[in-house]
Amino acid sequence: MNIEIDVEQFARDIKAGKSIGGKDGALGSLIKQLTEAALAAEIDSHLTQDLTKNRKNGYATKTMKSEHGEFELDVPRDRNGSFEPEIVKKNQRTMSGEIEEKILALYAHGNSYSQIASMIEDIYGVGFSKGAISTVTDKIIPMLQEWKIRPLEEVYPFVFLDAIHYKVKEDSRYISKAFYTVLGVRVDGKKDILGLYFNESEGAKFWLQVLTDLSNRGVKDILIASVDGLKGFPEAINSVYPDTEVQLCIVHQIRNSLKYVGSANQKQFAKELKKVYQAFTKEEAEIELDKLEEKWGKKYPIVFQSWRNKWENLSVYFKYPTDIRKVIYTTNIIESVHRQFRTLTKTKGAFPSDNSLLKLLFMGIQNAQKKWTMPIRNWSLTISQLAIYFDGRLDDALNL
Predict the structure, then answer these.
(1) What is the pLDDT, as a whole number, of residue 17?
(2) Which of 8, 57, 132, 356 is the most exposed place for a label (fewest CB within 10 A)?
């Protein structure tokens, strides 16, 4: 086999106006020659070190894909079958990580496998099947698994929990699953996704598993947990973090309330409800809630029953000054992550497996966290106030 590098032909191609890269680019043929030359050197080195009577045994040809198009690569073989090339691994079919990186980048922006295949072919002139693209995106899974067990910080001033629902195939049928995002605000005021958990139904047992996982990964204390009306959560968190205060999300409570209010009255009811949750003190809020119930209670009793039953956890934020209230007032801080999730999954409908969804959500988390370079607004004042309200619990974290 001739392994001389025809640089002169490469130069002629460039002078003739042929592009360097891309489909049918001049680099394509040069890469083939360089790779085959390296393989030849590899097998010669292997045979020199082999003390048996091993020798060359022809070539095996396989189709390689690179950012410069496809080409047929002749890989040398040895008689004993002990030669394992390094430059091109046994099952390797691509010559560069550039294509895989491009596939992952397109995937991270919510493109379907069909869209990715079309774009890759347009850019590189290389055809990829949906199965091949799935294999590339499966490389996210080990990254996801490593991320899920990484150590966490010892103290989080705020933790937010919220759910987003998807249809996932299980036992030949599609079922609705809740995927819970756990977002923490660190002592430095920066946001961090602590975990992503899924379950068919929420409850104390499930939440105990989540909180135990956080504890096992190093979380010793949570000051305030802001959550939707999660069944069983207050009981679960008190068993793992007995000193944590639980604030139910006001925005979720408002939304749930308006579902039971007639459409003709929703605007007026929502306006009057503001006087409750935007009150300056808990006492003032309770007075406004009494007034609201006196006016609307007979018409919408289920709404006020819900507010009364949850009032202890809905009203936690009233005890804090404005800066702390702004952080725990709603779960909007976590809903921005879920908006990223919805952007990525809006064209998907249902998912064939948990992993197919999780790897996409993981990419959404990576996208969101790239933007979290600054602490929450007015964080210095907020953390100072927290240190006073939660006397001693932030001392080690703040080196006080």
Answers:
(1) 47
(2) 8
Can you read off the two tokens belonging to residue 27?
């680099």
Q: Which tokens go with 371?
A: 């933007």
Distance between CA 128 and CA 130 in Å, rounded? 7
3-state secondary structure at position 116: helix
Cα distances (Å, whole numbers) of residue 203 to 199, 206, 227? 10, 5, 13
First to last CA, the chain: 73
| Tokens 């007979």, residue located | 298
From residue 304, give the alpha-carbon distance in Å to each of 293, 309, 330. Answer: 7, 8, 20
**Alpha-helical runs (H) found in 199-321:** 204-216, 233-240, 250-258, 266-277, 282-296, 301-314
Say which residues have a Cβ less than 8 Å from residue 347's Cβ, sequence separation at least 6: 110, 112
Residue 395 burial (CB count, 10 A): 12
Q: List pLDDT tens digits, range 1-33.
A: 444 444 455 445 544 544 444 445 555 566 677
Nearest to 246 by CA among 187, 197, 310, 192: 310
With a cut of 70, which residues of the chain have pLDDT below it? 1-31, 34, 38, 66-69, 87, 94-99, 123-127, 200-202, 229-230, 329-332, 400
> Considering only CA atoms, which of 137, 72, 125, 102 is closest in space to residue 348?
137
